[in-house]
Amino acid sequence: MKKILAACLSLTLLTSCAHQGQDRYSYQDVGKPTQVRWGTVVSHRLVSIEGENTGVGAVAGGVGGAIGGAFLGDGAGQLAAMLVGAVVAGVAGNMAEQAVQDYGG
Questions:
Q1: Lowest mean pLDDT across 22-26, 46-50, 93-97
Q2: Residues 6 or more apart whose Cβ sits within 8 Å of residue 59
Q3: What does DSSP assign to residue 101?
């Protein structure tokens, strides 16, 4: 149980490492000029745009994981399987939704 909890915590920490910076912007920043200068464009670069995460993926994953965990074991083992399944599948669902929402620009 401790290994699974540690794996979930590690996965959560790793997924939060992507932050906005030089090449990554939020969907809210798209189309908003930060600085306007007149001149000639000499180069351009592709950027990653982080899409809006609604939480539907996490909820759907959590529910699916809990249902899947309900089929494992019985008694306290079943409850533990449901909780672990809900957490792991919820994190996976959140990551999947974010991956679908992200795009390049």
A1: 22-26
A2: 90, 93
A3: H
pLDDT in tens, 65-78: 999 989 988 888 88
**What SS3 class is residue 103?**
strand
- Beta pairing class for 24-26 and 48-50: parallel
Tokens of 45: 């670069």
Contact 21, 73 (CB under 8 A): no
DSSP sequence for 16-82: T----SSSEEEGGGTT--S----S--------EEEPP--SHHHHHHHHHHHHHHHTS-STHHHHHHH
Q: How do residues 19-32 score in pLDDT, each as one tens digit?
A: 556 777 888 878 77
Give the pTM.
0.65
